[in-house]
Amino acid sequence: MNETASPAADPQIKVKQTAKDSVFCDLFRHPKYLLQLYQALHPEDTQTTEDDIVTVTLTNVLLNQMYNDLGFTVGRVHPRLMILLEAQATWTINVIIRILMYLTTTWKEFIEKHKLNVYSSKPIELPKPELYVIYTGERGQKPEWITLADELFAGDDTFLNVRVKTIYDGGKGDIINQYVTFTRVYNKQVAQYGRIRQAVLETIRICKDADVLKEYLESREKEVIDIMTTLFDQEYAMSRYGEEMHAEGRAEGRVEGRAEGRAEGRVEGLTEAVLRMKENGFSEAAIANTLKIDFRTVCQWISESTKTPLC
Fold first, then answer.
1. C-beta separation of 6 from 227 below 8 A
2. CB of 168 within 8 A of CB of 121?
3. What is the rounded average pLDDT for all residues in the chain?
4. CA distances from 33 to 2, 25, 40, 114, 158 (A)
5. Do 220 and 26 touch, CB atoms closer than 8 A?
6. How far apart are CA 117 and CA 114, in angstroms?
7. Are 252 and 272 in contact (CB under 8 A)?
8. Spatial separation of the C-alpha atoms in residues 160 and 74, rounded to whole Å
């Protein structure tokens, strides 16, 4: 591994707060591991392949979405299932609200993509949703299911209810169990070394030795280190690389009186930030996690600018 290639080669460098979330997003953007995740949730389904699973994680770069969210459908022609997950280390009932908001937005995109008529008298067909939280903290007395009615309305019957299943450890050796184990190893290393790069290096070493996410960590070690130790948060990167372009877009929107002018300015600002960070040695995965942009969007912008194949 080439240590000098990383923007954060110093083992004492501080690690960002969202390091574990970044690994969650990077791990499950790969079809191989996404299929393993689905199989962990539905071991009875032995027919589904990588080609049957489509990621539907929101990609709206104009909004600051919760970046440790993951969504995908099963079945390409007639999707039969929509699974939405969020990984979190701190227990909060508000995750129900976040997932509900995420679900409605994802459904909206699905309806628009498939040109479904919600005003028709005939019921439209939507993929059945399954909502999960992967909780990496200590379980204690926390429940397997949490519901909107019980948690926010004291169990009163409501016009709307949402049920979310909480996963704490997964099945022995499955991809969920390995991810949770990875986070716990990382927590122990942070407790020993502090929130510095050395804790990341030790976590990767220990997990590879214990056959925890070994294949993933061996094939993407540099990228994992990058995304866990990226120095720039979104605000800093935007202020350094994209704020001028962003400001120009806002000004254009004011002058021309068009909201799309402001939107275009933000996209241009983010594009500029992506290209500058790439020039400064950041990997595509690190850029995506830092700026909270979908990985595919980062690859597309870089490819269009540099006239190179998609990453």
1. no
2. no
3. 79
4. 26, 11, 10, 27, 38
5. yes
6. 9
7. no
8. 25
Mean pLDDT of 143-158: 89
As beta bridge partners, residue 85 has 70, 132
For tokens 């094939």, what's the residue? 219
What gap in Å lies between CA 281 and CA 311, rounded to an integer?
A: 15
Q: What is the pLDDT of residues 103-143, one digit of tens each?
A: 888 899 889 988 999 999 999 999 999 999 999 888 888 99
- Whole-prediction pTM value? 0.71
pLDDT of residue 239: 52
149-153, 229-233, 258-262: which is most confident: 149-153
How many whole angstroms separate alpha carbon 151 and alpha carbon 102? 18
The sign of the torsion formed by the CA atoms of 41, 43, 45, 48 equals positive
* Torsion, CA 76, CA 77, CA 80, CA 86, rounded to 10: 30
Using the predicted structure, report yes or no on whether residue 296 has a pLDDT greater than 90.
no
- pLDDT higher than threshold 50 for residue 59: no
State the burial class of residue 254 (Cβ atoms within 10 Å of its Cβ: 0-12, 13-18, 19+).
exposed
Beta strand 163-167 pairing with 53-55: unpaired
Q: Rounded to an integer, what distance in angstroms lies between the CA atom of residue 34 and that of residue 27?
A: 8
Instruction: Give the residue carrying structure tokens 């990997």.
Output: 283
- Maximum distance among all Cα pairs of the chain, rounded to whole angstroms: 63
pLDDT tier at 69, thresholds 50, 70, 90: confident
